[in-house]
Amino acid sequence: MKKVLLVTGASRGIGAATALLAAHRGWDVAVNYSTHAQAAQDVVVQAIAAAGGRAISVQADVANEGQVLAMFETVREKLGPVSGLVNNAGVLDVAARLDEMSVARWRRMFEINVIGSLLCAREAVRQMSTRHGGSGGSIVNLSSAAARMGAPGQYLDYAASKGAIDTFTIGLAKEVAAEGIRVNAIRPGLIDTEIHASGGSPNRVRELEHLVPIQRGGTALEVAQAVLWLLSDEASYTTMSLLDVSGGR
Ligand code: NAP
User: Fold this and answer.
1) Do the beta carbons of residue 181 and residue 127 sit within 8 Å?
2) Is 158 a catalytic residue?
3) What is the dihedral sign for C-alpha 138, 159, 33, 115?
4) Hey, is 101 helix, strand or coil?
5) I want to staple 96 with a disulfide (CB 3.0 to 4.6 A). Which of 1, 54, 100, 121 is the partner?
6) What share of the chain is helix, strand, coil (3-state, %, to 5)?
């Protein structure tokens, strides 16, 4: 039976790279997106062209419970029960100090980055857990190096949301370890994607890469390779890990 992977926020960036690499490695892939349907469909087409496996795009705002439930049902109907989940969908906001931030900004950040990840993990556990008649699986959460650096003066709300992801990873890994499910997180550093433009700093990677011990930003593919290892059976004894993919920063 083919393994089925759902990648949230896979219409571009790290999510798209992960979906494509997973297709190469033989997974059937569900490419989630929130607004960019055509970009998600392009990833599907590339995934099928590359690997000949099955791939679908599926819309859902991960912060919307009804849409997430419908997404998991669609994936189960079209591809089968999920055995892999990558909680990748996440948002940044413009650089600001705490004393300049609005509550509306914090709510959006936490609803997408934190509640969205909990919600998708909940639905995945319901399909994967041996407790619910499933065959087990693997969950990888996208945290950030910001979780340990704090991002002062820039976006400490984002950093705090990723700190919540680290703690969630530790708790869920222990909760479902005996039910055939491994749960890990990746903490990327400066990765060259469009998320920096959404935070108002399109040149952020170039401006800060001299601070990275490896002396460059990372690529989405370099993060995807770590995600795929954690998803794979080669990581069969690895759970509750917070893996830094940050060039030493
Ligand atoms: P990105 O290029 O901005 O892509 C974000 C993706 O998330 C898009 O596909 C977007 O799809 C989707 N998305 C946004 N809100 C969503 C929602 N509510 N529901 C479903 N999908 C949603 O970001 P990225 O750089 O690849 O980052 C991916 C993950 O890695 C994020 O969790 C981010 O925090 C984390 N990360 C990134 C870096 C970095 O330097 N790039 C560093 C550390 C951690 P639509 O456009 O269709 O909405």
Assistant:
1) no
2) yes
3) positive
4) coil
5) 100
6) 50, 15, 35
- CA-proximal residue: ligand 1, atom 40 (nearest): 191
Is 184 a pocket residue for ligand 1 (Cβ < 6 Å)? no
Q: Where do the structural domains in the chain lie, given as residue ranges?
A: 4-245
Exposure string of 110-148, with b = 16+ CB inside 10 Å and e = fewer, is bbbbbbbbebbbebbbebbbeeeebeebbbbbbbbbbbe
Contacts of residue 186, Cβ cutoff 8 Å, sequence gap at least 6: 140, 141, 142, 143, 223, 226, 227, 230, 243, 245
Please give the single-letter amino acid code of residue 152: P
Q: Does domain 4-245 have CATH number 3.30.1220.10?
A: no
H or E, element range at 188? strand 181-188
Q: What contacts 114, CB < 8 A, 6 or more positions away? A: 161, 164, 165, 168
List CB contacts of 46: < 8 A, sequence separation 6 or more.
20
pLDDT in tens, 120-152: 999 999 999 999 999 999 999 999 999 999 999
Kindly give the distance from the C-alpha atom of residue 9 to the centroid of ligand 1, in angstroms, as a whole number: 6
Instruction: Output the residue whose Cα is nearest ligand 1's atom 10.
Output: 9
Q: Token pair of 216, please?
A: 């460059």
Report the distance separating Cα 189 and Cα 165, nearest Å: 15
